[in-house]
Design goal:
The complex is a heterodimer. Chain A has helices spanning 2-19, 77-83, 85-88, 104-109, 112-120, 139-143, 152-161, 174-182, 223-232, 298-327, 334-341, 343-349, 353-358, and strands spanning 32-42, 48-56, 66-74, 91-93, 99-102, 129-133, 189-198, 201-213, 216-221, 240-243, 254-270, 273-289, 361-370. Chain A is of the alpha/beta class. In chain A, strands 1, 2, 3, 4, 5, 6, 7, 8 and 9 form a nine-stranded mixed beta sheet that branches. In chain A, strands 10-11-12-13 form a four-stranded mixed beta sheet, with helices on both faces. Chain B has helices spanning 3-6, 15-25, 58-71, 74-77, 83-91, 103-111, 158-166, 200-212, 221-227, 245-253, 288-317, 325-335, 342-362, 365-379, 381-385, 391-404, 411-446, 494-500; strands at 32-38, 46-52, 97-100, 115-119, 125-128, 174-181, 187-194, 240-242, 257-261, 267-270, 448-449, 452-453. Chain B has a five-stranded antiparallel beta sheet with strand order 1-2-4-5-3, sandwiched between helices. In chain B, strands 6-7-9-10-8 form a five-stranded antiparallel beta sheet, with helices on both faces. The longest helix of chain B is centred in the last third of the chain and has 36 residues, at 411-446. Chains A and B meet through β1 of A and α12 and α17 of B.
């Protein structure tokens, strides 16, 4: 009797264990085309053209791993992805996708449809780095390699991951872009990519920012502006600051390395009026001095600190004013800060935030601390 | 020789008749000797000794039994009241001599190597201890060699084995209960325990199980081990075995009960729990930090060796997103030209490893070299170069093979469980692996060894019981014996406990 019970229980439970779990899909690694990068352009015949970088793994030290590109078109992203099978021959495997490059055209028309597929599909991940191509198409970025047998997407990934030492482009993953698009009070940004000449070769270069309004691309910021955008977004983890404390129109003589920077955005309410207090706390060190003047004295350091904070303050102010007047896009998250700290006020002004932002008064206070002067205190004396 | 027939036979007062009876019983046995002789001075004293050639020490017989009876002047002091008693007390020089008239006892002792002396006119026999048989020297057992520790190992003689343990535990509390099992082999079994430490319930249960055994013969303690096991269908052993006297002594001191089996150098211990697989005698002789490290390594490799093939298979065929991209590339590249699915190649390679291992233990040493070379070739570069298997699979096989050798006692269980987990992973990926693993843990948790939970102490880390589980705590901290096993007398270091209170 007991055996019969166990038998029937097994008969019922066993199929469930097959049906109700997510793991039914046995597939061997070599049967898959591993997608490591994707570029999306406007199609010639259909709505989208997707270009995929697919790995061509090879054994041995002499033959490095290379990649190949395939392109396919479709009326939707998924359609284009599926159509790619008829070219690649094998099913595409998306879990190791590293970068997604969007062309200007596509980004201007709105990216939410593309992001949606990346979030919805079971195989794709939302930690894919996103890039906006400043060139005519996104495809040509993938085509250009720095070295012959290199995987472009891995190269781009390295660039993005190491951006924090340079702080001239934000690193944005799909989830972050989507987050910024859906959330009130903040506009999305993404790094831009363009081709540049390096040693007679055209190769990709990541620098600058693309500004989104809702889910549509509206404009670009250059490298310098991006640097201060990152200050305001509290995303600075490194990078350098150049300045010339002696004369205004001279080339910079002092280079400072940023160690750490903290930015706090504090909304201040005055009745129904709102103003922003931005506090930037930066710790830097002197990295290089191209002058014979000794800056490492107490007065000089205090003066230098003041100069640097003025520099940051001025540039941030300029950037905010540019955003207010040209785009009306609050990419700094002032609205989000208000939403967080003054929810009652946000209810009143939130819907009209764009107008509020355009006339928003922003007070910036910058505190710079020079921590040390690296290995040598005195400037290097040039002998006779 | 039918036992039922023998029960009807008894000794008579006529020596002639008795000799005939013996000769009939051992009619086709040329090792059976019946030697008749008389006393020089008193020819009416007719005697006959019965023994088996090869089992007895003939020197003892000649010098201490035959010679005194032959040449002693029995007439002088003989009272002639009872010649047999007279011989036993005054003539024969032997340290162990008894008299009996039970035919079955006489036969049993004779088969065991004793000599029987019959005297004409008396129906009781003298059983003279003259056992002597070829014996191996006591050397280090090959199954468990140590760097630090005694190099003695048990041999095939039960008496030698008991003496080896007795020499370590010089206490009158060490008790030995003997019995014979095996309808044909009459194998001597000895239950050893320390009175006052060992749990009587376990002892009674062990005796009950041993009494229930009804088998033709016991040739090794493995028979007993299987016959008294708690969960007969489980790959896990619930009866331990060891070839080393120091291990057996230590287990006796912990309150366990040992079973010596004549003819087997492996002595059994009960109860046996999971954690004992990972305990080695060297742990207790080395520095405790080093010992704990070794024990953790052993436990970890036991775990790794059952799970590596399954986990690799599950991740590389179901959950590729879990692999780092660079690893994904290299695995994908190495699998490019391999014709078989991963599950097949892993299974085949593991089986080949086990074939090589089995061949290595079974074949004579001179051919062993060949096996090593072939094994190395098959499992080595050649298989990968020929694209029969991918390089990661070879690494998996080698690692699994290496790790499972750390726990030789666990070998049988590892091979079964590893295969189980491999196939459950092949069907359901990491989910299947977890299900399989759960099944194993549940099974282990449900096991009992002589009433003691099999997974005893494996969940403990801090308290007294945990001090000798995954780690080996220093001796001065282990003041208690394992609970539930040595529960009758828990204090191992009584003064330590008193001081703490």
């Amino acid at each position: 009797m007991k055996l019969i019970k166990i038998f029937f229980l097994t008969c019922i439970l066993l199929p469930f264990s097959f049906i109700l779990v997510g793991c039914w899909n046995y597939r061997e690694l070599e049967d898959m085309n591993i997608v490591v990068g994707a570029a999306i352009d406007k199609g010639i015949y259909k709505e989208y053209m997707i270009t995929l970088e697919i790995l061509e793994p090879s054994i041995g030290e002499e033959t490095p791993t290379t990649s190949r590109l395939i392109s396919s078109e479709g009326d939707s992203i998924f359609d284009a992805v599926r159509n790619a099978i008829s070219i690649s021959g094998q099913k595409l495997y998306w879990s190791h996708n590293k970068v997604l490059i969007l062309s200007k055209e596509i980004a201007q028309k709105g990216v939410i449809g593309i992001l949606d597929w990346f979030h919805r599909d079971a195989e794709t991940r939302s930690d894919v780095y996103i890039l906006i191509s400043k060139e005519n198409s996104a495809k040509e970025i993938l085509e250009k390699k720095e070295k012959e047998d290199q995987v472009t997407s891995f190269n781009l990934l390295d660039i993005l991951v190491n951006q924090k030492n340079l702080a001239k482009a934000p690193d944005v993953q799909i989830w972050k872009l989507t987050d910024d698009i859906i959330n009130d009070g903040i506009m999305a940004i993404a790094p831009t990519i363009e081709l540049t000449i390096s040693d007679d070769n055209l190769c990709p270069k990541v620098a600058g920012t693309a500004i989104f309004k809702n889910d549509k691309l509206v404009g670009f910021l250059d490298e310098n502006e991006t640097h201060y955008l990152l200050f305001l977004r509290d995303k600075i983890k490194g990078g350098i600051l150049d300045l010339n404390p002696e004369g205004k129109n001279e080339p910079p003589t002092i280079t400072l390395e940023i160690f750490d920077s903290k930015t706090k955005i504090q909304p201040v309410t005055k009745g129904n009026e709102i103003e922003m207090n931005v506090n930037i706390n930066t710790i830097v060190s002197i990295a290089a001095i191209k002058s014979t003047k000794n800056f490492v004295t107490n007065e000089e350091v205090i003066k230098l600190e003041k100069d640097v904070s003025n520099l940051i303050k001025a540039n941030c102010k300029k950037l905010i004013e540019k955003m207010q007047s040209e785009y009306g896009a609050d990419i700094f998250g002032f609205g989000a800060a208000t939403h967080r700290r003054e929810p009652a006020l946000w209810k009143k002004i939130g819907e009209n935030w764009e107008n509020v932002f355009e006339n928003l008064k922003v007070h910036i206070t910058v505190k710079v601390k020079i921590k040390n002067s690296a290995m040598t205190a005195k400037p290097i004396e040039v002998g006779d | 020789m039918n036992t039922n027939l023998l029960s009807n036979i008894s000794l008579t007062t006529s020596l002639e008749d008795n000799i005939t009876t013996f000769k009939q019983i051992f009619s086709d046995d040329f090792t059976f000797i019946a030697r008749e002789f008389q006393n020089k001075y008193l020819p009416s004293v007719k005697c006959c000794i019965f023994y088996f050639k090869g089992l007895v020490d003939t020197e003892v017989l000649n010098e201490h039994v035959i010679e005194p009876i032959l040449s002693e002047n029995l007439m002088e002091d003989i009272s002639l009241l009872n010649l047999v008693d007279e011989l036993q007390y005054k003539v024969i020089m032997s340290s162990d001599i008894t008299s009996s008239n039970d035919f079955q006892t006489i036969l049993d002792s004779m088969i065991y190597g004793d000599t029987i002396l019959l005297v004409d006119g008396y129906d009781n026999a003298l059983i003279i201890n003259s056992k002597s048989w070829p014996s191996r020297t006591i050397d280090e057992p090959e199954s468990a060699q140590v760097v630090r520790g005694p190099r003695e190992g048990f041999v095939e003689s039960i008496l030698t084995n008991i003496s080896l343990v007795r020499r370590r535990i010089k206490s009158p509390n060490l008790k030995l209960r003997c019995k014979e099992i095996g309808v044909q082999t009459h194998t001597k079994i000895c239950i050893a325990y320390i009175e006052g430490i060992a749990d009587e319930n376990i002892l009674n249960e062990l005796e009950r199980r041993l009494d229930e055994i009804e088998i033709d013969g016991i040739l090794d303690s493995g028979y007993i081990q299987e016959l008294i096991k708690d969960a007969p269908y489980s790959p896990f052993e619930t009866v331990g075995s060891s070839e080393r006297p120091d291990i057996i002594a230590a287990k006796l001191l912990e309150g366990r009960i040992a079973v010596f089996v004549d003819g087997s150098p492996f002595v059994l211990t009960v109860p046996y729990i999971m954690i004992e697989y990972f305990q080695a005698n060297e742990d207790y002789y080395n520095n405790y930090i080093f010992a704990s490290f070794n024990r953790i390594i052993r436990a970890a490799s036991g775990l790794l060796s059952i799970s590596i093939p399954g986990v690799y298979l599950a991740i590389s065929t179901y959950h590729q997103e879990m692999l780092p991209t660079s690893l994904l590339i290299s695995i994908s590249a190495s699998r490019r030209n391999v014709p078989f699915p991963t599950v097949v190649s892993i299974f085949v390679m593991l089986t080949i490893f086990d074939i090589v291992r089995e061949a290595g233990t079974r074949i004579p040493t001179p051919i062993g070299q060949a096996i090593n070379i072939v094994g190395a070739l098959v499992l080595g570069q050649a298989a990968a170069d020929a694209n029969l298997v991918s390089a990661p699979v070879i690494i998996i096989t080698a690692f699994t093979g290496m790790t499972k050798l750390l726990n030789p006692n666990l070998l049988g269980a590892i091979i079964i469980l590893r295969t189980l987990l491999l196939f459950s992973s092949a069907i359901l990926g990491i989910y299947g692996f977890i299900l399989g693993y759960l099944a194993i843990v549940l099974h282990q948790m449900s096991l009992r060894s002589f009433g003691v939970p099999y997974m005893l102490n494996t969940t403990r880390i801090k308290d007294q019981d945990g001090k000798d589980a995954w780690i080996r705590a220093p001796w001065w901290m282990m003041s208690l014996r394992p609970k539930l096993i040595g529960k009758k007398n828990l204090l191992r270091q009584p003064s330590k406990k008193a001081k703490r209170k």
